Amino acid sequence: MNQPSGSIALRYNNVAVALHWLIAALVIAQIYVGWTFGDMDRGPGRTLWFDWHKALGFTILALSILRLVWRLMNPPPPFPDAMPAWERMAARISHLLFYVVLLGLPLTGWAYLSTGSGAAETGAMTLFGIDNWPIIPGLPRAAHDGFEEAHEILVKITYAMIILHVGAALKHQFIDKRRELNRMPPLRGRE
After folding, report:
1. Over the range 57-94, which residues count as b (16 or more CB within 10 Å of their CB) and which as e?
2. Pair 157, 97: CB distance under 8 Å
3. What is the C-alpha to C-alpha distance for residues 108 and 136, in angstroms, rounded to an integer?
4. Contact yes or no for 57/106 (Cβ under 8 A)
5. Rg of the chain's alpha carbons, rounded to an integer?
6. pLDDT tens, position by position, 40-50
7. Average pLDDT of 65-70?
8. Whole-model pTM?
9. Rounded distance between C-alpha atoms, residue 60 and residue 96, angstroms
10. Alpha-carbon gap, residue 17 to 12, rounded angstroms
11. Which secondary structure element, helix H or strand E, spans residue 30, and what is its range?
12. Taken in order 112, 118, 121, 123, is the CA torsion positive or negative?
């Protein structure tokens, strides 16, 4: 379907839109929670915030898997015809990188917890008030610091990806006048 550069872009389906915005809100909440507990001294208050961090991480992991499965079964709408090839490629790469961080962050966090001294002793961890949440079996204790470093690197990549993603959407919307935000409401304009 040909679209002039100013036309309304084809939009994602409602499930994809709902998952996008729910995951986005959870990621923003996760950033806040991570900054908050990261600056706290050890104790019950920090433990509570850390429990929220773990719970949000597992929720983001589950929703991201659901979103990936949905995307594979329901391909996204095509890019507007006016979008240059290099921007299409950049968008594909950025979407792929988002899946890497949305899956990689919770998995490296889970691996970090699975190789910690508490998990090594009990074979489980606490999550959602459940004391016997499973750890990832078979991971060597020596990999604990590596999983922590990988988690921290993915956090920094996430910050860069959010800035790039929001910046690109705003550029397309307001500079290129391609109304890209209409592809992923709730920022849907008049038709």
Report:
1. bbbbbebbeebeeebeeeeeeebbebbeeebeeebeee
2. yes
3. 10
4. yes
5. 19
6. 999 989 989 99
7. 98
8. 0.87
9. 16
10. 6
11. helix 14-38
12. negative
The DSSP result for 99-122, as a single string, is HHHHHHHHHHHHHHHHTSHHHHHH
Q: How far apart are CA 101 and CA 93, in angstroms?
A: 12
Cβ neighbors of 98 (< 8 A, separation 6 or more) are 161, 165
- Provide mean pLDDT across the span 9-18: 86
Using alpha carbons, select from 26, 42, 53, 33 the residue that is nearest to residue 110. 53
Please answer whether residues 103 and 23 qualify as being in contact, where contact means their C-beta atoms are separated by less than 8 angstroms: no
Six token digits for residue 13: 């389906």
Cβ atoms of 147 and 108 within 8 Å: the answer is: yes
C-alpha span between 179 and 96 (Å, rounded)? 22
Q: Give the total residue count for the chain.
A: 191
Tokens of 29: 């909440």
Could you identify the residue written with the tokens 């809100």?
A: 25
What are the C-alpha distances in Å from 159 to residues 2, 23, 63, 94, 152?
34, 15, 19, 13, 11
